Amino acid sequence: MMEQQSALTRVPGFRAVGVTCGLKTSGQPDLALIWAEHPCTAAAVFTTNAFKAAPVLYDRALLERTSTLRAVVINAGNANAVTGDQGLRDAEQMARWAESACGLPPDSAFVMSTGVIGHQMPMDNVEQGIRAAGKALFTDAGAQGEQAVQAIMTTDLVPKESFRQVDIDGQTISIGAMAKGSGMIHPHMGTMLAVIVTDAAFAADALKIALQQTVSRTFNRVTVDGDTSTNDTVVILASGTAGNISIGKGSPRFDAFVTAVTEVCTDLAKAIARDGEGATKLVEITVTGAATDIEAEQAAKTVATSPLVKTALFGNDPNWGRILAAIGRGGVQINLAGVLLKLGDFQLVASGEPLPFDAAAVSRWLAERAEVRVGVDLGVGQAQATVWTCDFSYKYVEINAEYHT
Amino acid sequence: MMEQQSALTRVPGFRAVGVTCGLKTSGQPDLALIWAEHPCTAAAVFTTNAFKAAPVLYDRALLERTSTLRAVVINAGNANAVTGDQGLRDAEQMARWAESACGLPPDSAFVMSTGVIGHQMPMDNVEQGIRAAGKALFTDAGAQGEQAVQAIMTTDLVPKESFRQVDIDGQTISIGAMAKGSGMIHPHMGTMLAVIVTDAAFAADALKIALQQTVSRTFNRVTVDGDTSTNDTVVILASGTAGNISIGKGSPRFDAFVTAVTEVCTDLAKAIARDGEGATKLVEITVTGAATDIEAEQAAKTVATSPLVKTALFGNDPNWGRILAAIGRGGVQINLAGVLLKLGDFQLVASGEPLPFDAAAVSRWLAERAEVRVGVDLGVGQAQATVWTCDFSYKYVEINAEYHT
């Protein structure tokens, strides 16, 4: 039975539902409500886009007033972004309705939205959806939570969830998370939307740092199209019911938790890249031998956002020249005579010069892969970073040329 | 008769030819040779890509030895990039052959290459091509120069040339230029290849500054795919035969020349964007109201490289939300309550909030346009910048997925 539950509801003390309230034209579930049995220490990271959506502005202010949450309400179909003062009032109203539906006091609920930009929220639908979700929460559906992850999908083809357990102080800590995202993916602080819940006990400041460390190496290292959304948000709720000693900064238990939650978020980050709009391949780009971590990430992201590299991979073309050209424009320190480049296990460049290889064989190998690893060593230092992206296909153009506002 | 000449050979004292020597599999002309009757003051700007092609390294060293040139040899079909020491020797050999073919001493010829990366130059073909070009230079073909611009094209669908005359000190100064470029276009110092010739007399230091000023506002403001090439080079040759007083820095004649050569290079920059791989529309993005010129350019380039904006324009979708989302991630100062956005003459956003508009009518208008202007005012300061790009179509993916190394 456990296997059929959602990743969120596998964490003791959390319930989640998804309902349909007419925000998606497809008639699919479009509103999710997550509820915690106990008050949770919470932390979040948000988009750095200057045009922050109304729920992002609401949540940021909320977490300045409190670091304890009991619920998260999320809608798809409308981003509530570039919607002015009315949008802000609507985000706040969604929080009030969610709190009321769960029998909670004000400032207990976090709000997230995703969908089209620049349209006012159809608040009648939202109100009806939140009421229905509140009722469903305390049924079997709320215990299973399968519809919640469906409700946050937009152009996503597959739901994205991950679950891990880790032993801390002899207690089993559970971590469950879900995310959505397929286009406008180049997060800088969070990727579109993700919710992480855990039963670990946590000091608020330590939870914030744990989340920041995790996001910087997972969601902030995935890109589909280089476009950062107005709504990117990742939130973590820690209920403390696992019975562990509260996790503070700089302890072995902090490191153990960060390792586990990083695994969870890496699963989701890779799932987002694999489900990138129009993607046929997950592409994992690892840059080693960089002068600094920042340069390693910058070089890997330059490759990951190169349309020429991404179309070559779609065409199963082992075009290492485009990969090096991208590395070369990335503004990082390179030892030209020490550069190595690998595609999977094929070494294509060594000591900065091309090696002979069977292009047809590598092309056939590429054609058979759903996941491709690209490795570049800059020959300078010891720093490294891995970034995930996808290839760039006709379908990406179709999705984004034919999706009208 | 003048109208049939190439832009380069309309400048008195310059000859140009293109020949076929088997570097392009298409059998089209693939090697160009340009010759100046008189020694020319020369300046050039080059790619900032760390992987600079061999001819870029050769030319950069050449212009440290001399600022006087008499010839330019250019091949398409092979970029001579990431080709190691052999590539450097080949670039130098091309210069020697070109000088010999034109009866010039060493260090008179500039070398440019474009095409695939990572393959050694087929030097037998190149030698034969340069010899044939040398012979053709002093025939009618050399005087007309029509084949030269054909010879530097790769995925370009149309040749790109521009010609202007400007009166300086009562003398008519002619400026002719040609360029190539369609993919891997996001220049930072030059765009792929451009050659500008003029009969103006120029001080060497002033010519360098004039070229830098011009390139920063023309070729450095065009992008097709965000990918900066390994071979970007722009060179200018000034023969001084027009009889004007030698143009020095900071004079009215310097400004007059820069204005004229900026017009010429703007023509070519727009032609490159219009002929971007798979493009159906030229897109001109003007950001006004920025805090600084650099921020205006940065914001405009962020829009110009957004795959979501570019696919929306291909789909004739007036998706201003994607444009604002790109502006918002651009890292520039924005007065959110003062933002304006226009698509052509349609005002879609004012005071940071969406205006009602007839989306179907704007979409029909977009569908009829070969050129689209996007205007965004950031509401902060007085600075502005214009950047040129193109839309992003199925054809772009086809060209780059099916073009194999």
Secondary-structure blueprint:
2 copies of one chain form a homodimer.
Chain A: E1 14-19, E2 31-46, H1 54-65, E3 68-78, H2 84-101, E4 109-116, H3 123-137, H4 140-144, H5 146-151, E5 160-168, E6 171-180, E7 193-198, H6 204-217, E8 233-238, H7 252-274, E9 282-290, H8 293-304, H9 307-314, H10 320-329, E10 340-343, E11 346-350, E12 353-354, H11 359-367, E13 371-377, E14 383-390, H12 394-402
Parallel strand pairs in A: 3-4, 7-8, 9-13
Antiparallel strand pairs in A: 1-2, 2-3, 2-8, 5-6, 6-7, 9-14, 10-11, 10-13, 11-12
General description of the model:
2 copies of one chain form a homodimer. In chain A, helix 6 (204-217) links the parallel strand 7 and strand 8. The first copy, chain A, is built from 12 helices and 14 strands. Chain A is globular, with a radius of gyration of 22 Å. In chain A, strands 1, 2, 3, 4, 5, 6, 7 and 8 form an 8-stranded mixed beta sheet that branches. In chain A, helix 1 (54-65) crosses helix 2 (84-101), helix 2 (84-101) packs parallel to helix 3 (123-137) and helix 8 (293-304) crosses helix 10. Chain A is an alpha+beta fold and 405 residues long. The longest helix of chain A is centred in the middle third of the chain and has 23 residues, at 252-274. Chains A and B meet through helix 9, helix 10, strand 12 and helix 12 of A and helix 9, helix 10, strand 12 and helix 12 of B.
- Largest interface, C-beta closer than 8 angstroms, per-chain residues: A-B, 64 and 64 residues
Low-pLDDT residue spans of chain A:
none
What's the overall average pLDDT of chain A, rounded? 87
Q: State the oligomer.
A: homodimer
- Figure out the total of helices of chain A: 12
H/E series of chain A: EEHEHEHHHEEEHEHEHHHEEEHEEH
Assign an overall shape of chain A: globular
Q: What is the terminal separation of chain A in angstroms?
A: 41 Å
Largest sheet: number of strands, sense, barrel closure of chain A: 8 strands, mixed
Number of strands of chain A: 14
